[in-house]
Predict the structure.
Amino acid sequence: MQVINPANGAVITEIPADTREQVQSKIEKLRKGQGLWADVPVEERLAAILRFGELVSDEIDNLAVILTQETGKPLQQSINEIKGANNRLVHLKANAKKWLVEEVMVDEGATKEHIAYEPLGVVANISAWNFPYNVGYNVFLYALVAGNAVIYKPSEFASLTGLKFRELLWKAGIPANAFECVIGTGEVGQMLLDADLDGYFFTGSYATGRYIATQVAPKLVPMQLELGGKDPLYVMDDVADIKQAAINAAEGAFYNNGQSCCAVERIYVQAGIYDQFVEYFVEEVKAYKIGDPMDKTTFIGPLTRKPQQQVLLDQVQDALLKGAELKHGGFSPEGPGYYFTPTVLTSVTHDMDVMKEESFGPIIGIQKVGNDDEALNLMMDTPYGLTAAVFGTDKDRALALLKQLPVGTAYWNCCDRVSPNVPWSGRKNSGLGSTLSYQGIRAFVQPKAYHLRD
Ligand code: NAD
């Protein structure tokens, strides 16, 4: 399988994709090892995971270069991601034992009642490329600490990073028969679906997630799906600082080239401040440095996947045909690499794909709204339910809206943010189940109820 550098289209290297026999033999190895790993005390499993964190920190410069070369993520953002993902280790260190230890519910009387939390077994982690550290750690580190064996399939656009995870986990003391990595496209993902594993944890698009759900359902094993979004941001007219709101909104929309599941994908601004907001927003976007992702000062690099250029062009064309105004960008510049100029559209409506379909790129529509009711109706007008944000000074007013929205995460005066202390979950077409927080620890175990009579 070729690994392509999206900044110039050059082949970085070729790596062998796993065959069906190799996938099967890796799963068999994990089947043999899982019980042994589960018998290791949780403190020791955690210690190995923390050692992995140290090895990642020691090698951060090299790891960031690998990530940037295979995904096009600007180098500084690769460093930020790797450093930021460490908060999962901090969370596990503080919480894993607390949520995995056996609980005594009734300790008096003739019958004692306990809950033991047992690992699921051998679980699959089929993952995405846009934040491989964050979304990978959310699953494979938490699963390993809970005593599962993990078969990890990195995205075909982040395979080198996936192989580094395996190397460093093994080096940190996670046994080779508790963690494995399989390389390849969706075909190799299908091989995992064809196997009888004890849990499936997927991060990726709605289309793939929905398909995976149909394949896993008859197995009757736990399944979690972390899928896409069309995340709205509403800027109220009482916002404290319009310019700062515009800067923050733009960052939420364009960080990692808009290739974040929780990127701001559509913006609604109250009429009284609309023009000024748009002016500051466009000014900010025009100042973004676009270019070589290996340059630490670059903010916008290439898209990771070439076909996405056409998806974005189509969204721009569709919007312009239906009356949108192009304030900036709207095209792929000439030259090598999968670049797309950051794009701002105004006078947009919900008849346009850019306000309805996940863009997953550096493109945003900003729509004028009269009041909170109108904003709420538009924010709700989506099959997705990942995050929603409101900017404004009146907390009660903002919360009144956020409470009504069927989303897994609600932001007031912030956006495009994930924390290990609270659950990460999507509703509707954005997913099923939670990672992170205590829920994300318990996601990788099954309870066993003990009724104990002396
Ligand atoms: P994708 O669905 O194309 O691929 C995800 C993974 O599924 C890859 O490893 C791929 O090889 C595998 N796959 C593809 N077809 C398969 C099949 N038939 N059987 C089994 N596996 C298969 O998604 P992507 O492009 O890697 O990621 C982008 C999407 O992920 C966006 O929609 C984004 O919003 C979403 N995402 C969501 C979260 C979240 O936490 N909610 C986080 C990151 C990304």
